[in-house]
Write a structure and sequence with these properties.
This protein is α/β, with parallel strands linked by helices and about 500 residues long. The protein has 17 helices and 20 strands. The chain folds into three domains: about 140 residues, 3-Layer(aba) Sandwich (Rossmann fold), CATH 3.40.50; about 170 residues, 3-Layer(aba) Sandwich (Rossmann fold); about 140 residues, 3-Layer(aba) Sandwich (Aminopeptidase), CATH 3.40.630.30. Strands 3-2-1-4-5-6-7 form a seven-stranded parallel β-sheet, with helices on one face. It is globular.
Length: about 500
């Protein structure tokens, strides 16, 4: 069996769109950069939705007889088989148990049984109960938008590009293939709304879509300036200019959240409903109904509300940023490595959520917990809530809850030290006293280092705090002046 060889099973078509193929390629690209070999196995015709520039890095095959051809193409099997396909369940997966050492499933429906070792579902607020009885007991579940497979450029733009465009931009996207032929209609309607402000319309679509000529004609006839971005792999700089997005609730929703773009949603498929509702309930988007019929009055009202109320737009933007930080592909890679090395840890970290505010305050109320804090005075609950809200909405803060045996037991927070370098973060860590001394904090620090290998991590520790000094020095931190430092790669 080939070492570090991953085979992806996914499809793309005009009917289903290209979302499965795109998110698989994000993961494949990350694996290739870490010396993996990757192959894509797709149904005939999928290649036209796979940009040729991306095919150079992977082995791409289209097959008719799936089981026969797959074994013939790769008789030695693979290390990991990664399946992202709504029409594949445990019966399909079991055929490859002897052929693949590990099986990973990417899903967002939770409507069928799987025989897999790792399952990724990036729907926000995913709960393990959704997959109860649908996966084997040994299967590791990666649930929630912190595992959304975004291209690394989104994390980069989130961190380093805070540009304010000279003109207002509306980003419009209904999937790479615009299966419902919405774009020509939307461009026409936007011109008819007579909105009291000017803006540029950025349309993102594949040139392979059946209605591409219609889209170009609608853009040409538009009074408002329309830029049609087709087949671009560099989406982040386009999206980062947007004030608002008008879009469906597909996988690209997490790209918009990562960059803090408020979205006006038009529902185009039932399987988007969970994502749409979760983003709207978080205060990061507005739902104006389904594509058929299109609610034109609701669209106009939503555009006016967001564009004319800067404060509201900023609140939506902050809420969006708190839902996805763009590090999902790194977290998935770490989980795959842990699976292969058979070292599943009883310690994990997850992104902090709004509902954690009370739990974190209760930890702060534990006697002696703030003894060595740089701010030892206990805040009021109101002060704590204000501080907490500012942190989870802060793009310069990475805030995680530490888990031990799937229970919340502490927190680890990274705040950017902009006075040093753009790659420097100050680490703050807390583990509840009852579980201190069991190596939990050490493992949490190791997970953060794996997640951000390129970053320089700093700890500021009082000289009397011998336990923390021992923790950080044993974790590879070296004293430099007032800090203990772990330099990135």
């Amino acid at each position: 069996m080939m070492q570090n060889f991953a085979v992806f099973r996914c499809d793309a078509s005009q009917e289903m769109g290209a979302g499965h193929l795109v998110r698989c390629y994000v993961l494949a690209q990350y694996l290739v950069q870490r010396n993996w070999q990757c192959a894509f196995i797709c149904s005939p015709g999928s290649h036209q939705f796979f940009p040729k520039s991306n095919l150079d890095a992977v082995d791409y095959q289209e097959i008719e007889d799936e089981q026969k051809d797959l074994h013939a193409l790769y008789p030695d099997g693979c290390k990991v088989l990664i399946i992202d396909h709504y029409q594949r369940d445990k019966n399909y997966q079991r055929q490859y148990r002897d052929w693949a050492e590990y099986i990973v499933v990417i899903d967002d429906l939770a409507n069928r049984e799987h025989d897999c070792d790792l399952l990724i579902d990036a729907a926000f607020g995913g709960k393990k109960e959704s997959y109860l009885g649908l996966v084997p007991k040994h299967c590791t579940l990666l649930l929630g938008s912190e595992y959304a497979l975004l291209r690394p450029q989104f994390w980069h733009y989130r961190q380093y590009h805070k540009q304010i465009p000279s003109k207002q931009h509306l980003f419009v996207h209904f999937g790479a293939l615009d299966q419902h032929n919405l774009l020509p209609q939307i461009i026409t309607i936007l011109n008819q709304l007579s909105l009291p402000f000017e803006f540029v319309i950025d349309v993102l679509v594949s040139s392979k879509t059946a209605n591409f000529q219609q889209i170009k004609e609608a853009a040409k006839a538009s009074i408002l300036p329309v830029i049609v971005h087709s087949d671009t792999q560099d989406v982040a700089p386009i999206l980062s200019q947007a004030s608002i997005a008008l879009a469906a609730a597909g996988g690209n929703s997490w790209e918009r959240c990562c960059l803090g773009i408020p979205t006006i949603f038009i529902e185009t498929a039932l399987n988007q409903r969970v994502t749409l509702r979760s983003i709207v309930q978080a205060g990061a988007g507005i739902d104006i109904g389904t594509a058929n019929p299109l609610q034109v009055n609701r669209l106009k009202k939503a555009l006016l509300d967001l564009w004319q109320d800067r404060e509201k737009r900023q609140l939506f933007s902050a809420a969006a940023r708190s839902l996805c930080d763009g590090l999902g592909v790194r977290r998935v890679y770490i989980a795959i490595q842990q699976m292969i090395q058979n070292r599943q840890s009883n310690v994990g970290i997850r992104l902090t959520q709004k509902s954690d505010v009370k739990m974190l305050y209760q930890w702060q109320c534990i006697a002696g917990i703030r003894k060595y804090s740089h701010h030892p005075t206990m805040p009021s609950y109101q002060q704590h809530c204000q501080w907490f809200a500012s942190k989870i909405h802060d793009v310069n803060c990475l805030f995680h809850i530490i888990q031990y045996q799937q229970q919340d037991v502490g927190m680890i927070r990274l705040d950017k030290l902009t006075q040093l370098t753009d790659k420097s973060y100050l680490v703050s860590i807390l583990v509840v006293p009852a579980l201190q001394g069991q190596g939990i904090a050490t493992k949490a620090l190791a997970l953060v280092r794996q997640l951000l290998p390129e970053m320089h991590l700093y700890a500021q520790i009082q000289a009397e705090n011998k336990a923390s000094i021992r923790l950080f020095t044993q974790s590879g931190y070296v004293q430099q002046g007032h800090y203990y430092v772990s330099l990135g790669s």
